[in-house]
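WARN no homologs supplied; continuing
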Amino acid sequence: MSYIEKHLISGETIQYQTNLHWVVMLNHAGLSVFFVAAGIALVVFSGSTRRPGEPHSFALIWVALAAFALATIVLGMGILKRSATEMAVTNKRVIVKTGLANRRTVEILLPRIESIAVEEPAIGRLLGYGTVVVKGTGGTHEVFEKIARPLEFRVQVQSQIASGQKLA
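OK structure emitted
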């Protein structure tokens, strides 16, 4: 069960959920590819420098294994960062939770939202990600970067605000 599902209040239902876009993984994936390539190069080099009749040196193999381990750790950290972020619009509030060990949660009641802005770079428009800025009463600004489908997130917030105003 997700953090958001565990922390719903009485009568609250999730209307829309999203997460970080896969583009947040690019730095982690690129660094992992570098470490894997370095590990492969070390393995190939260790085999090509060995002369017949000499004992095989395992020093470069151990360094290559360390590079492969680093690649796995870096990629795992990226996956963990992406999966540890939850974003939802309920019929009563907007909830965003980031992090595992150091958790940050933002919960804004729908009637307290003054405006919601979406910023999409050109590549973000093509790939479907952007930044959402929620301005609450009192001038608070909450910025959520690299959200998947940011325009849909804004539409869902606006529709929930509009449906709440009809009931009042």
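The longest strand covers residues 129-136.
OK
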